[in-house]
Design brief:
- The protein is built from eight helices and three strands; from the N terminus they run αααααααβββα.
- By secondary structure, it is mainly alpha-helical.
- It has two domains: about 45 residues, no CATH class; about 110 residues, no CATH class.
- It has a three-stranded antiparallel β-sheet with strand order 1-2-3.
- A hairpin with a 7-residue loop joins strand 2 and strand 3.
- The chain is elongated and about 75 Å long.
- The model has no long low-confidence stretch (mean pLDDT about 75).
């Protein structure tokens, strides 16, 4: 190949985007889909404004502080565990836990207080929240309801500040 041809080919491929490399029928399908009002509305719903981002960043910061404290300070783990145990007895698991279909071993472990507290991402919502991991050979994780998780997070930060 001649040098001018190679240089022209390089300029052409460098100016191409991922969209340009698609076959024409695929480009047409994408254009049609992105022009539909329904798809545009779905896309708009996923876009977050500055206020939403600020709230999400503040929430993530609180969860990060709590997660760090749970991993580095055993007394925080114990205090939170005792508080959750007490609330589980008073309010019942159906009011606090996201999942109602627990194995009998997991139910027994939660009732007896044989669980660890952690923070993990909920696969359904994509949000981080407090989860309970029953001890023993039970490989389940039980998420607290989002509102309950937020209450404990806010209470933790309030207790740290005082």
């Amino acid at each position: 190949m001649s040098a001018p041809f190679v240089m022209a080919l390089n300029r052409y491929t460098m100016s191409m985007s991922w969209f340009d490399s698609l076959p024409s029928h695929e480009k047409q399908r994408l254009r049609k889909r992105m022009r539909s009002p329904e798809e545009y509305e779905k896309l708009r719903e996923r876009v977050k404004g500055p206020e939403d981002l600020e709230r999400e960043m503040a929430k993530n910061e609180l969860l990060a502080e709590l997660k760090f404290a749970l991993e580095t300070e055993p007394h925080v783990q114990e205090e939170l565990k005792k508080e959750i145990e007490k609330d589980l007895r008073e309010q019942g698991p159906e009011e606090m836990l996201e999942s109602g279909d627990l194995s009998p071993e997991a139910q027994e472990a939660l009732a007896s207080g044989a669980f660890e507290v952690g923070i993990e991402t909920n696969p359904d919502t994509g949000n981080e929240q407090i989860v309970l991991r029953p001890e023993g050979n039970v490989a389940e994780k039980v998420s607290l309801q989002q509102s309950v998780s937020e209450q404990y997070t806010v209470a933790f930060v309030a207790s740290e500040g005082s």
